[in-house]
Amino acid sequence: MTTDLDTLLTALYVKIDDELEGRRCLGRPPRLTDSELVCLAVAQAMLGFRSEARWLRYAGKNLAPMFPYLPKQPGWNKRLRAALPLVKKAIRMLAADTDFWFDNHWIVDSTPVECGRSRPTAKRSDLAGWAGYGYCASHSRFFWGLRLYLVCTPAGMPILWALANPKLDEREVLQAMLDVEPGLVADRPGLLLISDRGFASQEFETDLALRGIELLRPSFKREKRRESEGLLKSVRQLIESVNDTLKGQLDLEQHGGRTFEGVAVRVAQRILAMASAIWHNHKTGQPVTRSLIAYDH
Hints:
By secondary structure, this protein is of the alpha/beta class. It contains eleven helices and six strands. Strands 1, 2, 3, 4, 5 and 6 form a six-stranded mixed β-sheet that branches.
């Protein structure tokens, strides 16, 4: 089967349109449907268009046969910001439609999402209070913005994700994420959660154990070496490569959002694009499920 952006968008449109059948209501239908909106959002992220104006010009010229109507930039921005619940639902729908959804091995990590660099931006931005100053030890840099917490399978399929102030404790954020959807853990007996040393805490590990989760992390020098720790190095590279896909190929930190809704939906847009590629590659039997090469041009 030919794997390219057109086939991905066609399959994604059919999948979303079928799943959203029950959401349709009486009244005048929008000229740009929810299914088309989600597909266009995925295409924008795949093709690397950070500017909405440039994206709409490109889509109007090259994607008109698939999407005969495109709103102007203000209308696109308004529809996209309002579509956050829809995008989140689409991410979950695609994840649940793969074999990866039933994997009882999860990997968790957080990565910076920069939202500004100047002091005036940090003081005047609508994100002030939600965003804040943080430090990224992996790249030895300070930043002003948010942290993206991502729980995914070894294949990179997103299971849970959240944006939080970088000053918040990583363990507290993860506990809150698990509290929101306790059924995800309950459906996976013997769940193994793989993390780095930032999630180390006896109290935290006890809390996870009560939820039925075993934490696997690197040991500190003062600790006894943990079982299966020798496998951690290769597994930890998986989450680093997932973050690299989001940042290097999907421009996670060049999102361009300036408001709470704008940043949230643009981050979700990039996670959806990655989930869509994994889903479609899995369905079409591609050897590398997280490859975006067939869709980014």
